[in-house]
Every structure is written in C-alpha cells, then in structure tokens.
Amino acid sequence: MKLAILLAAAAAAAPAKDVTFDSANVLHPAMGAEYRVAGRDVELKFGSVTYHLRNSGAPPVRIAAGSVSVEPYFAGDYKVEVKRSGEVEITPQQGGSVRVVAAGGTEWVAVGNKMIVRGGGPNPQYRIVSAVSRWSRLATALANINFGAGVAAGGGSDDSSSSSAPSHSGSGGHSAPASPTTHAASEAAHSAAASSTAHAAAATSSGGHGK
Fold first, then answer.
1. Which residues pair with 102 in a beta bridge?
2. What is the C-alpha separation between 152 and 147, in angstroms, rounded?
3. 101: Cβ contacts below 8 Å, ≥ 6 apart
4. Which phi and psi angles does 55 have, rounded to 5°?
C-alpha cells in the first residue's frame, strides 16, 4: 500500500512531457496538470498548460477548458489554466490576441489582458482584466516615481553648485580673509618701507645741499 502511494506521488511530481504539433508548435503542461490530447484537440481538466505557437500557418490547435474553447492563431505564447474552483483563466503572454469561443459567442483577448471565466452551460460569466497584478503595477509606479525624483535631484545639484557661495581659494578672485596677525605684520612691513624711503630721501636732500 505504501509503495503504491509513493509511486503515485512520484508520478504526480514528475515533470509533464511536452506535446509537439507540426514539429514547431509545442504544448507545455505544468506539473500536476490533468489533460487529454486527441489529434489537434486538447481537453484541459485541471492545472495549466502553455501553448507555444511558432508556425502560425499550421492547422490550429483547440484547447477546451471548462465551458469555453481557446483557439490561438497568431505566433506567440498562450496560457490556459483551470483552477480547483472550476474557474478558467486565459492569458496571451506574448504574440497576438487569442480567440475564446463559448456557446453564446466569441471574444478576443489581447496581450496584456486575461479572461476569467466562471460557470458552465451555454452562458458562462466572464470578465477581462489586466494580466499584470496590482502589486506589479504598484511596484512599477513606485519605480517611476523614484526615477523621477532621482532625475530632479540630479538637476538640483547642478543649480545649487552654480548658486553656491564663492570659493575662498587663494588662487580665485575672492581670497580668504586674513587673520589679525597677518594684518599687523603687513602694516609693520608698510611702516618699515615708508620709513626707509623717508630716510633715503633725506640723505639725498642733504647731499645736494653740501654741493
């Protein structure tokens, strides 16, 4: 009994094998997906599969999920998921829009959106919402705000540097203010120079009178 349980668990944990159509288009089942393939028709009972359509000229593959049929026609990647609640999600991840057919009509789902289908019968309820989660949109918005703030801060640094106080470098036009000691030494030097000049003038004058 234990061996049978272990074998069943191992089979469930084993990665599902891809199903190839026309040597180019591939159906990739997620782990634990329950599905059945008959020709070009896929019946998804539970879990998720992703259809990688590379050759759009090949005959179409239909994926039946709940009460709708998903029909990709354009090159791209398309994910279909059946939840435990029976709710179906169809998400074109990249490429083109995907056609979803129900008994009541046909709807196209564009890249960036996803369709959520509830209920069975001829008139299931569905709605199309953004495929990007609210938290991802919030993170993107915050990243844009931070980027804008960084650009503004970078520009502000240039303005502040241009309007900052003049440099007090000795080589610039605005020299640093001298200390009181420096002023005293400078005045003493000027006085000594003036005295020396006065003595020289007096000596010259006296020498001229002697002649």
1. 105
2. 9
3. 68, 69, 71
4. -105, 95
Residue position matching structure tokens 């801060």 = 153
Judge contact between 64 and 96, C-beta under 8 A.
no
Domain total in the chain = 1
Token pair listed for 156: 């502000």
- Residue 155 has φ and ψ, to the nearest 5°, of -70, -35
Q: What is the pTM (predicted TM-score) of this model?
A: 0.60
- For residue 197, being part of any structural domain is answered with no
Does 211 score more than 60 pLDDT?
no
53: closest CA among 95, 106, 107, 97? Answer: 95
Strand partners, 90: 80, 115
Structure tokens belonging to residue 196: 């020396």
The model's pLDDT over 151-189, given as tens digits with 9 standing for 90+, comes to 566 655 444 444 444 344 444 444 444 444 444 444 544
| Total Cβ atoms within 10 A of residue 42 | 23
Task: Please report, for the domain that includes residue 43, its CATH number.
Answer: 2.60.120.1440
Question: 3-class SS at 92?
Answer: strand
* DSSP β-bridge partners for residue 19: 27
Provide the pLDDT for residue 143.
76
